[in-house]
Amino acid sequence: MIFCVEDEANIRELVVYTLETTGFEARGFEEGTSFFEALAEELPELILLDIMLPGEDGMEILKKLKTSGRTKDIPVIMVTAKGAEYDKVMGLDAGADDYLTKPFSVEELLARLRVTRRRLQMMKSDALNQSAVFVNGDLRIDYAAGCVYLGEEELHLTPIEYKLLCLLAQNAGRVLTHTFIMEN
Ligand code: CA
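A: This is the predicted complex of the input protein with calcium ion.
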């Protein structure tokens, strides 16, 4: 699940639509209040956060996220207006993981997401002290890079396919029920 906080409806809708069509689950929020309400119920794996918002601005929201033990490890990509160098520096100082400058292309958005998620997966695999690579026959999953190979060939999976494959790999040799897969 990815949360996108953006007051400009056309950008918010485009982001949510793009994420959903590329296999992510996504929810959009116009401002901080509804975002924090949703956050109380569900923790997303990543947050896209606009800086200029009505009410609390993105920097204040970022500070809250990074000072709460519950949310401080969620990667945040700050979305800044073009040329706002100051905002970028401020965002990164306050613990944002990356930033995206408006207007951005769909390709740029997806590229930033991939990089941030890869970093996150690396952190997760370090934390769990898992082996960074899964190998079974010709299949090789490189968790750190978020890449899958069959023999020498890299497979291009959607995020959902990748997650599903990782889950199956973690449970290799076991039969998984539909319920287990949906829950995990
Ligand atoms: Ca805005």
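The chain has a mean pLDDT of 86. The first strand starts at residue 2 and ends at 5.
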